[in-house]
């Protein structure tokens, strides 16, 4: 099996709290990004103490209450189904703090991590603050909901975005990468894709490859699986009849998203 494809591995953390994904520098070829996916039953509690990491807590579905023990954000979360395409609420918490999540209903939560040494204020990122955009044309169309961007001062390193792609379309396409510290042309950002499908028995294809092909993997990705992009190009193809959702977590030494299109395929952008 690919080292870049991560299938869910269920582990009970506490009563009513199940960990499905746990990606970090100790178990994956990444240094700057991490991700956890939790499923929480109504009334259950998850607690964590951060060290030199910041976290963005995304209320994927259901409603939760989040506290850093100084502030409390009650009953946040705006959708029961990811594919409603309703933006959702998130909470940013900086390094050297602790937090608690309480499930107000059955909920699914994504925790996005990046290294951090400069403590910043805890912030509720309201659904209404998510910027929304449509990208691409022809068979390269997708719908984007930005939670944390590179121009947002909320976080030190984290970039978090949700992307919807309809069947028959490509996403993260034409193939692009961001694996060189070569500004202003390109920045270095590692990335994790967390995928879901509608209907859930669907799948997508994602290729991760470098110019020298030291990495060249094409993966069949199913519901609730994750793909690591430590470097290289990383396009996604969605079969007809299915809708793809993915949540991207990006981070690197500098919080700038400047990508580089593979020259062999950049002509696609200039079609009439």
Automatic annotation (TrEMBL):
Catalytic activity entry: 5-deoxy-D-glucuronate = 5-dehydro-2-deoxy-D-gluconate
Regarding protein family, the annotation reads: Belongs to the isomerase IolB family.
Question: Sorted alphabetically, which NCBIfam families does this protein's record hold?
Answer: myo_inos_iolB
Q: Which GO terms describe its molecular function?
A: 5-deoxy-D-glucuronate isomerase activity; glucuronate isomerase activity
Name the Enzyme Commission number(s) assigned to this protein.
5.3.1.30
Its pathway is: Polyol metabolism; myo-inositol degradation into acetyl-CoA; acetyl-CoA from myo-inositol: step 4/7
Provide the GO biological process annotations: inositol catabolic process
Superkingdom per UniProt? Bacteria
Report the protein name in the record: 5-deoxy-glucuronate isomerase
Originating organism: Garciella nitratireducens DSM 15102
What job does this protein perform? Involved in the isomerization of 5-deoxy-glucuronate (5DG) to 5-dehydro-2-deoxy-D-gluconate (DKG or 2-deoxy-5-keto-D-gluconate).
Q: Does the keyword Transmembrane helix apply?
A: no
Gene3D superfamilies from the UniProt entry: Jelly Rolls
What HAMAP family does the annotation carry? IolB
């Amino acid at each position: 099996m690919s080292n870049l494809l991560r299938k869910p591995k269920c582990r009970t953390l506490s009563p009513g709290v199940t960990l499905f994904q746990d990606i970090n520098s100790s178990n994956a070829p990444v240094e700057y990004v991490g991700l956890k996916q939790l499923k929480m039953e109504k009334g259950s509690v998850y607690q964590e103490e951060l060290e030199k990491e910041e976290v963005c807590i995304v209320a994927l579905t259901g409603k939760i209450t989040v506290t850093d023990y100084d502030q409390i954000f009650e009953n946040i979360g705006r959708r029961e189904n990811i594919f409603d395409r309703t933006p959702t609420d998130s909470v940013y918490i900086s390094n050297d703090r602790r937090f608690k999540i309480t499930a107000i209903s059955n909920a699914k939560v994504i925790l996005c991590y990046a290294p951090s040494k400069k403590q910043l204020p805890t912030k509720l990122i309201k659904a209404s603050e998510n910027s929304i955009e449509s990208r691409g044309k022809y068979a390269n169309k997708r719908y984007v909901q930005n939670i944390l961007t590179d121009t947002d001062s909320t976080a030190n390193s984290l970039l978090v975005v949700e992307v919807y792609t309809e069947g028959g379309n490509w996403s993260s396409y034409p193939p692009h990468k961001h694996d060189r510290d070569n500004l202003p042309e390109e920045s270095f950002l590692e990335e994790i894709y967390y995928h879901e499908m509608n209907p859930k028995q669907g799948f997508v294809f994602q290729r991760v490859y470098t110019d020298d092909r030291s990495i060249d993997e094409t993966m069949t990705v199913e519901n609730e699986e994750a793909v690591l992009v430590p470097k290289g190009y990383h396009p996604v193809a969605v079969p007809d009849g299915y809708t793809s959702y993915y949540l991207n977590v990006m981070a690197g030494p500098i919080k700038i998203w400047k990508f580089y299109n593979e020259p062999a395929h950049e002509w696609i952008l200039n079609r009439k």
